[in-house]
Amino acid sequence: MKKGIIISTLLLCVFYLLAQTKPKSTAQAGVDKASVERGKKIYNTYCLACHQADGSGVPGLNPPLIKTKWVLGDKKQLITVILKGMDELIEVDGEEYNNVMASHAFLKDQEVADVLTFVRNSFGNKAPGVTTGDVKSVRATVK
Amino acid sequence: MKSLCLKLCLVTVMIGLGLIHAVASDTTKVSGRKLQPDVDNGGLKLPTGFGAVTVVDSLARNRHLAVNSNGDIYVKLSRLKDGKGIIVLREKENGKASVVKSFGNYIGTGIAFKNGYLYASSDSNVYRYKLNESGEVMAPDAPETIVKGLVSKRQHETKSIALDNAGNIYVNIGAPSNSCQLQDRGKGSKGQDPCPILDSAGGIWQFKVDKMNQSYAEGVRYTTGTRNIVGLDWNNTVNELYAMQHGRDNLFQNWPELYDSVESAEMPAEEFLQVKKGSNFGWPYCYFDPFQKKKVLAPEYGGNKTTQGRCEKMDTPVIGFPGHWAPNALMFYTGTMFPEKYRNGAFIAFHGSWNRAPLKQKGYQVIFVPLKDGKPNGEWEVFADGFMGTPEISAPRDAQFRPCGLAQGKDGSLYISDSVKGRIWKIIYSGK
Question: Given its phi and psi angles, is residue B72 left (phi above 0), alpha (psi -120 to 50 degrees) or beta?
Fold first, then answer.
């Protein structure tokens, strides 16, 4: 029984510590840290009001950016959302999101790459970064 | 090791059971026949003398609600539950309610009773249901369609309703846009002038309660220049319509050379409007600056934060509330349970902000505005608070509850609906 109590206490401590750990940069190994830093500034200016500081979005309006297939999946689709915006109802994790996202084609290729590299390596996300080359090739097709 | 796991499980289960028992004994306490509030007031903070009963803990995606003459509570949903969009609740003596029926295969926001009918809206139509002598809906599966074909384009698409005493129903038609820019919510995108959206949205339309299948051709554009309204109610003391306008978003994101993120979080005001036939509140050309206390020209139309131009002529709000609090319900209190100062005043349920980030989110509360003859008679004050479940939140997803609907009980109590968990509270006054 004594052993039980000790182990329960230990377990509680572990849970407590886990609960206290805030999701900071979860950058995947090999991801350009400077790009993540630059991307954070872009995010804070143009994305944060809708998608929130922790990427959790707004229920019913703006989708979360936490471990969703939109964020972690096909880079081309993700770049297209930034360049063209989005005006359709989408479902993420069983919830519907309705709000309009305007085109952010005014961002330079480097800025799009930076902000997406940041998003793909924040809020618990871990995915390869996006390069200016990736953005350039998508931009050529969406114009 | 196995026995250790078992012991741990047992302890966890016992603690769990203990908690459940504690909660259950707290919320079902009834002393005599008098209604007792929950020990924790269902998580709400209320003025002295008031208490709250959790009528139902987690119903559905609640929007507005209305109380029938027999005391039953009708709740409109934004997501169907078991295929139905309206749920009917009946209270027991201790204030706890259970579902007695559900009907209506459409989602929506508006719901109201008037002169022997129940009225309810989808995002494009308004229906009515005849009540029998005991107040029951006679044909729940066969409502009459009184209004149809209203603009519903996935942004500000909900239709709130209010009824006057002359056979009219008022329906808000929200603008499917933030500020009528050429590119909606686009950085630096100019506003369309004139804004074509205003022909069929961005205002309140008036229809007849007893005419079937009305649409724009049969309706009257009662007022214009409102971006989105969710709180809407008829004030019987002055016989006028009042509304709560949701102000525009993204001043900083779209016009960073003019506004910073703090200004964008605090502006523009959410407007408490007295709506007269022919009123024009200026959207999308103007917004109400709560600090300068005037309508100023929007940046999409050449505004520089201070110039008024055409906005000088626009109608102004009765009160400008802090920016982005999202007022989702307005209700004039006519009961006698609450003290005299509440009589004919206005309760407003704010759903709470999202467009304030990176500042903390605010406004997840129900406030009270004392009124005399339909005009403010003293400062507005917070009435019910604690919906967030924590003192501060950064993102709206962290709010435990978000108040969305208000209704007055037969006994003069106040019902509040929540859209997150689906809780409904009944606020009572005991005077202690």
Answer: beta
Query: A57 in a domain, yes or no?
Result: yes
The CA-atom distances, in angstroms, between B108 and each of A65, B80, B201 are 28, 9, 17
Write out pLDDT tens, residues B47-73. Answer: 999 999 999 999 999 999 999 999 999
Q: Which of B220, B272, B279, B224 is nearest to B247 (CA)?
A: B272
CA B402/CA B407 separation, integer angstroms: 16
pLDDT of residue A2: 55
- Among residues A67, A107, A57, A58, the alpha carbon closest in space to that of A85 is found at A107
Measure CB to CB from residue B185 to each of A4, A52, A100 and give the nearest one.
A100
Q: Measured between CB atoms, does B397 come within 8 Å of chain A?
A: yes
B183 and A103 in contact by Cβ < 8 A? yes
pTM given for the model: 0.89
Which pLDDT score is estimated for A55?
97
- How many interchain CB pairs under 8 A, A with B? 80
Q: Using the predicted structure, report yes or no on whether residue B324 has a pLDDT greater than 90.
A: yes
**Domain residue limits, chain B:** 46-429
- CATH code for the part of the protein at B46-429: 2.120.10.30
Q: What is the per-residue pLDDT for A82?
A: 97
State how far the Cα of B121 lies from the Cα of B159, in Å rounded to an integer: 6
CA angle, corner B277, sides to B274 and B281, nearest 5?
55
